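Example complex used in Figure S2.
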Amino acid sequence: MQGIEEILRRQIEKIVELTDDEFHFILSHFTIKSFKKHQYVVQAGNPTLNDHFVVKGLLRSFYLDEAGKSHILQFAMEDWWISDPQAYHNGGNATLNIDCLEDTQVYMITLENREKLCAELRKMEFFFRKKTQAGYIALQKRIQSLMSQTAKERYDQFLHLYPQLSQRVPKTLIASYLGISRETLSRMAEH
Amino acid sequence: MQGIEEILRRQIEKIVELTDDEFHFILSHFTIKSFKKHQYVVQAGNPTLNDHFVVKGLLRSFYLDEAGKSHILQFAMEDWWISDPQAYHNGGNATLNIDCLEDTQVYMITLENREKLCAELRKMEFFFRKKTQAGYIALQKRIQSLMSQTAKERYDQFLHLYPQLSQRVPKTLIASYLGISRETLSRMAEH
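Predicted assembly (382 residues):
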């Protein structure tokens, strides 16, 4: 188990330093869970009780539009977080689905435990504030990309930002994430 | 001055309750500044030293793509925050422009003062964590809207979410925010 604990510890220690006692206290607020490839972690229409920190594997979050077409919002591999943030933070049922593209292992934390942890350990309130801030900036860049980049520019940026993901994620799914057709992406990937 | 102080206090007290002393301590970390219609608050290529909380007026943030076309990322009216988050939080020069669509008055806070305030007053760390979380969720909805909604659906959602903005912002600018042409928006607005 030490390997996966270290992945969580390194993630937090990129932002705040921890003593061993502090880390074990933090860890006691998480539970670990394994999922098989294709298994659902969150399903639209059900509550989203947990935020998920990936220690092994690969997931995606996606939703169906009114015409029943699927759109990928996010991928998450080792060292990334994934959830349906609206349902997790505000309650109500998930509108997103999250499933596993590979066999996956995650540390899960309920909102209650997250808030308790933030209240009990100031460093963790700082950590989550800074993580959310970085996430906000990343989403704003994604909006700019959707608003003003061509399909080719989006694809090149994806390869540049996420070289590992582009090796592990099937092209059909990258196309869905980028909002372009599979055929367009195939043509670009050949050149 | 009491009126505008109250706008800031109510904004914070939606999330945490404050004593008078706490609020005056918080206020001492902000400076107030007035801008005329058309004046720039942030200019691409220059540092973004402040986050801005609007107490009067209306602003927009926008950027120019490589072809020189302008895209609006955000509007902000009374009780909203606006900045170039990447430049403000991570340093470096702004890539966004922020200018005033009306005569405007803002409370400004530097990153240094914001971090000091968070360290000094736990309630403010909680406040900024929750505000950023809510902002993250709003941006994720905007991404979903850009990925899967038609121009008409986006326009209707804008009218529904921001009835006040749609009265105050010229249609050309709403079209730029929604990523649709002025002509398309005019046709929709007639019906």
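The CA atoms of residues 18 and 177 of chain A lie 36 Å apart. Chain A touches chain B at residues 63, 65, 69, 71, 73, 85-86, 89-90, 118, 122, 125-126, 128-129, 132-133, 135-137, 139-144, 146-149, 179 (CB under 8 Å).
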